[in-house]
Amino acid sequence: ISPASELIVEKPSAGAKSDKATYKDVGGLSNQLQRIREMIELPLRFPQAFLRLGVEPPKGVLLYGPPGTGKTVIAKAVANETDAWFTHISGPEIIGKYYGESEQRLREVFEEAQAHAPSIIFIDEIDAIAPKREEMGGEKQVERRVVAQLLALMDGLQARGQIVVIAATNLPNTLDPALRRPGRFDREIAVPIPDRRGREEILQIHTRGMPLARDVDLIRIAEVTHGFVGADLEALAKEAAMAALRGIMPSIDFEDFQVPYDHLRTMEIDMKNFTA
Ligand code: ATP
């Protein structure tokens, strides 16, 4: 979750490394990816097949699970793999707008997605814009209007299957049930904390480009990192790399910057650098 000051609208091909995510960058979630591919990739790729079969592809898919488990990476990966236009909105950012602006931005996002179909609209932290309506007191007027606008936009989506809204939340039970009715977010996929095997796959992904010493045993690291989510494992791998660097550059003197180039070229990250 990265709070940004503006609504982010991006195309996956023109971005940072994570925007290039593919299914190979998602670890430990093969069942979830399988379902995502059936629900989103197939209709995006073969809309005629769904029409012919009389099967309605979903308009909305809800990914729920703890923070840092890979919900955003999954959404980006499916967009990249299908070459779909990708738009990313975050719930709290929409709510932060002035009166009437939130709905306007939502409408713009949907219009843009329609113009660029096939498209994926990713709404991160949807719980911020769509808490249960009965729980919204007088001060929750903005949320009430934004939920109503989102529901209207989803109901009005044409080109069914060619525009898919993927929403992510850590708090599925706080969502307005109206959002989960048929024709809206009627498919749900749990994105859980990874198990040992999942942690191993995620560690493999995040150490892929690293010069690991022979003693580095990712299976062992996966065993002792119970409770770590993907974001934690990524941070662990980065921290190990920094620890290795500190090992050969114990005190970095920025005044008289001496980089031991030979060491840098041959340096490796070894097991003791991984301190979970
Ligand atoms: P939040 O609810 O906080 O938005 P999220 O579930 O959307 O979290 P991501 O943003 O997808 O989490 O993941 C955060 C970081 O952790 C990403 O940079 C990603 O590389 C890494 N990561 C998380 N889960 C996985 C995973 N299953 N496989 C590979 N990397 C992962």
Structural features:
276 residues; binds adenosine-5'-triphosphate; 10 helices; five-stranded parallel β-sheet
Order of helices and strands: HHEHEHHEHEEHHHH
- The first-to-last residue Cα distance is 22 Å
Number of helices, counting only DSSP H or I runs of 4 residues or more:
10
Bound molecules: adenosine-5'-triphosphate
Protein model, in words:
The protein is an alpha/beta fold and 276 residues long. Helix content is 41%, strand content 11%. Strands 2-3-4-1-5 form a 5-stranded parallel β-sheet, sandwiched between helices. Helix 6 links the parallel strand 3 and strand 4. Helix 1 packs across helix 2, helix 1 packs parallel to helix 3 and helix 7 crosses helix 9. The protein is elongated, with a radius of gyration of 22 Å. Adenosine-5'-triphosphate binds next to helix 3, helix 7 and helix 9.
Would you spell out the secondary-structure blueprint of this structure?
Layout lengths: L29 H16 L1 H7 L6 E5 L6 H12 L2 E6 H5 L5 H16 L2 E6 L16 H15 L7 E7 L15 E6 L5 H11 L11 H6 L6 H19 L12 H6 L10
Parallel strand pairs: 1-4, 1-5, 2-3, 3-4
Helix pairs in contact: 1-2, 1-3, 5-6, 7-9
